[in-house]
Amino acid sequence: SRRIASERSRFALPEMKGDLPPTLAISALMDRLPVKALAYLVYSTVEIDAATALSLGLVSRVVSHAQLETEVERFLEGLAQRSVPALAAVKQYLLSARRMEPEAAASFAAHLLATVLSSR
Fold first, then answer.
1. C-alpha to C-alpha distance for 113 and 9, rounded to whole angstroms
2. What is the reported pLDDT for 1?
3. C-alpha 79 chain-centroid distance
4. Three-state SS at 55
5. Is 18 buried (19+), middle (13-18) or exposed (0-12) by CB count in 10 A?
6. Which of 12, 17, 29, 92 sees the fewest Cβ atoms within 10 Å?
């Protein structure tokens, strides 16, 4: 999924300040961040800015605060022009393929493409 952040955005995992392990947050971020970066955010509880979040892969794009709403609307308009089967196939592939062996991932990709083409 695409995450657009304002240049003013800040991100943190402060739960450890209260001795609470942020296991749900870790679970949600494990496939999105390098393990060392995620561990650092958890243990240090530091707040990071949008540029750092972009460099870690936590967000896809950083835009000026004034342009945030416009950029999100533009992105959503682009999604609205795509077919539901194509969007669903991409989402399913992104969620599943990285856990597959390369040959299985290629086969799954071909299957999803054939399914989308047959839905037209």
1. 37
2. 62
3. 16
4. helix
5. exposed
6. 17
Reported pTM: 0.77
Whole-number Å distance between alpha carbons of 82 and 21: 39
d(CA 92, CA 108): 10
Please enumerate in sequence order all residues whose Cβ is within 8 A of that of 32, keeping only pairs 6 or more positions apart, or say none.
Answer: 57, 58
What residue has token string 């870690």? 56
Q: Which mean pLDDT values do the consecutive 10-residue runs of the chain (120 residues) have? A: 91 97 95 94 98 95 96 95 96 92 96 94
Could you say which DSSP state residue 100 is in? S
Q: Which of 67, 70, 48 lies closest to 59, judged by CA?
A: 48
Residue 102 class from Cβ within 10 Å (0-12 exposed, 13-18 middle, 19+ buried)?
exposed
Q: Which two tokens stand for residue 65?
A: 């605060």
- Confidence at residue 74, expressed as pLDDT on a 0 to 100 scale: 95
DSSP code at position 34: -
Tokens of 55: 């460099």
